[in-house]
User: Fold Dedicator of cytokinesis 3 from Sphaeramia orbicularis.
Amino acid sequence: QKKSACIKIVLCETVVPLEDPIITETTSTLQEWGVLWKQLYVKHKVDLFHKLRHVMNELIDLRRQLIQGHLAQDQTREIKRHITVRLDWGNEHLGLDLVPRKEFEMVDPDQISVSELYKLGDSMRQRHGDSCRVPVSHHLFINLKSFTYNSISEDADVFFSLYDTREAKQISEKFMVKLNKNGGPKNPEKVDRLCALFTDLSSKDLKRDLYIVAHVIRTGRMLLNDSKKGPPHVQYRRPYGCAVLAMSDVFHTITDLKEEKDFVLKVYTCNNENEWYQIHENIIRKSNTKYSAPSTNYGLIISLQLLRGELEQIRRENQAVFNRALALTRKLGFPDVILPGDTRNDLYLTLERGEFERGGKSVQKNIEVTLYVLYADGDTLKDCISLGSGEPNTSEYRSFVLYHNNSPRWSEMVKLPIPIDRFRGSHLRFEFRHCSTKDKGEKKLFGFAFTPLMREDGTTLSDESHELYVYKCDENATFSNQGLYLSLPCCKEDFNSCPNLPANLPFQRSPKETFWVSTILCSTKLTQNVDLLALLNWKAHPDRVLDILGRLRQISGEEIVKFLRDVLDTLFCLLDDNTDKYGPLVFQSLVFIINLLRDSRFYHFRPVIDSYIQNHFAGALAYKELIRCLKWYMDRSAEVVRQDHIQEAMRALEYLFKFIVQSRILYSRATCGMEEEQFRASIQELFQSIRFVLSLDSRSSENLVFTQAALLNSFPDIFDELLQMFTVQEVAEYVRGTLGSMPSTVDIGQSMDVVKLQSIARTVESRLFFFPESRSILLPVVLHHIHLHLRQQRELLICSGILSSIFSIIKTSSMESSVQEEVEMMVESLLDVLLQTLLSIMSKSHSGEYVSCLLSLLRQMTEIHFHHLLNNFHSKEELKEFLLKIFCVFRNLMKLTIFPRDWSVMRLLTSHIIVVTTQFLSPALHKNFSEADFDFKVWNSFFSLTVLYINQPSLQLEALSPAKRKKVLDKSGDMRVIMAYELFSMWQKLGGIIILDTNTFLHQYIWHCTAKNSAFRHSMFSFLSVSVT
Assistant:
């Protein structure tokens, strides 16, 4: 038996199921669809018949999952989303009513304002989701299914990466797959598990000219078809082939984000090993003279799938994928969305090329490079080299060998995930060996190069190409004492910094030999920026502080957010050290950092600075200087021509106030509330400056317009901070004074007019406006601005949004407390101008917003409000004009299709509000315009309204299905009867005055005598009998 609850409402009881409302809706909808589904078959609508059956089966399965109740919160939400999508699809295709929803559940029209109901329905109709301020990350899933080759017969390594051909650079790490000579995984445990996820691809990346590039490196003999070249026990890494796949082809094929598709990549071999470093470019450019095409049955078979969202979300939604030993393969550098807590310390090293001497040999060398990462004590760092994701890290790396090449170009990248505590003092050593292909197959050491990872000033290797010196050595050379070579210059810059080298060096440099490497650092803990290090270590150079602060803007955003807390600590430490000397520059630096976090790339760091302010910020005296600087900037806005720095300060207003308020809290806590009056006075003076800026005439100054716009945009963001220090009424008074200082619409340009209204809109949507005690203070000034705009028919769309928000808040508040005074204010300020506006724009596209606003206001009005309204007219002429306006608007609502036919909830609610309003207005009509004061025009308007009302298609219950008719009758009854009784009553009150066009009325009502509703038929016959006599 289904669980339920009994709710008592006055004299009746309503039985409400305790199950999830969406389960109840799904059940009732399936029952209704079942009847219509059979009719589709009868009507030969076969296509829709089969589609609906499929959707109904899906709904039954989704409903079952919800009923079982074994889902996580995220899964439940996703199931509900799928259910509502299918319910709305079916209702739309079956011609059923639109169901307004909020958070996947049906809304009760009685619990929300009409304007909010309109917004919900309109947004569902447009299918427009909320836009996200943060860029969405994409992730490419790749699965290597097989490598069908028949000519290598050796182990091979396949390296997959993403390559931007327009910028000619690799943009991702490599995904490495080790295969045996039969083409299967070298590790048997990895069968069907050779997959990777290329993470953090931005929408911008997907628009690049991207390719998936696969390089195949075999491990075996020096020459594939010559068994004489090297003994079988000696293994060399040798280039074999390359395959490419255009991502544009992938995107055209993968239409669904959940879809996984197979692709075949042909593996081309290089005709000349000297061209190996750019074989992928040659294939992409189709330079077919530089590579050889394979046979048709030869290549890599991969499957691809594009996923979207944050990685944790992807992990939750695709657990089957992540359970397959998935190798996460990251972008080189930081993603477009940088998340706090994303700790990385990766150095990407690319072996570019080398120039080596022949060394007395008749042929050129076969050069292999071995890389080690060594710590300051000479020990090799274990497992700090990664050839690619998907395989364990190693302690040494051996390059592939190019046959007989003294000028090899490798362009092979490896990742060095070096622990942060081992980075300082560590260095890289490259050993060069000639791989002989004679009987013994010896690998003879002939030279080495090295480079420290960090410079003496604490910065790391810069992201660029580095030309390293090559030092001569042989197999007998010992590297046990690395100090012997670390004292030598590793490159030209190093040589210039140590001019007095001793003559008897332990290793001699080979002047004709050079080795090039390039590096890219992706670290959240280390920096390559000298200025940032100098700022963090300012006490070592106090004389350079002013210069360092002046250069802060030149530091990249990635570097600043990595050290955000340290940078902020430094700035406030400088402020404490010497406020007079450093105050203005610290303020500028703080503004720069705050605005940096407004960038979408760093938006996720806003919680980091919030946490810093609440938990780590210790500048108890900072508020004084911050207020002083902010006020100084505002006071200068009328004087200076260039106002870039002032505008930046205005944009940073929210977080400046966060620092000000938290600083004052710390000071008050430390001093038991000392200097409270001085603080309040300084805030009062600051608001005077804010009002001063907004009151300036900006029509002749574009820069001042931008300053005022920046201030108005940021102004609503400071309310919550002020509420920590002041009462609700005090903050409301500050805001009212500020909004009241803004010029009227005739004194400002259109762009500023829009900004002003947007600021008012955000004020109405703020937490401050939800308090009744502050709303009573703010509402008059808000209504004043709205009234002016409606009178002049300016910015109607923004005004309707503001009114919609106000009505929603008042509707919500009315359920907890009285809103009589607020509604009274709105009636006095808005009712007449809303009617006038609707008469002007009723046939235009955005009239629905204003109709919903008018209906919201009328619905909120009580008998008291109508009584005050009708008694406050100064003359009968004013009352007559009002009645004619509102009757005309009501008639237009029924003549024009303001709300679509499938929006019956909105249509019925409109009808209900019209009939209730008519009941409130009809006594005033009879009292003021009967007998001696009889006015044909206003009475004719009233009776025309009733005719149209009763003739509305949406109220003709006989035309509805039995289920829908029952819903309507249960909810609001037959509203035609109510209006008919109202008409009958008013006709009787006219007495003997029969000067209206009775025939017209008789003609309109005779048809309704045949209506099936007995109560309605009885009222019609009563009316007709009186009319005829």
Remarks:
- DSSP finds 38 helices and 24 strands in the chain.
- The domain at 21-96 is CATH 1.20.1270.350 (Substrate Binding Domain Of Dnak; Chain:A; Domain 2).
- Confidence is low (pLDDT under 50) at residues 7-12, 127-134, 994-999, 1008-1013.
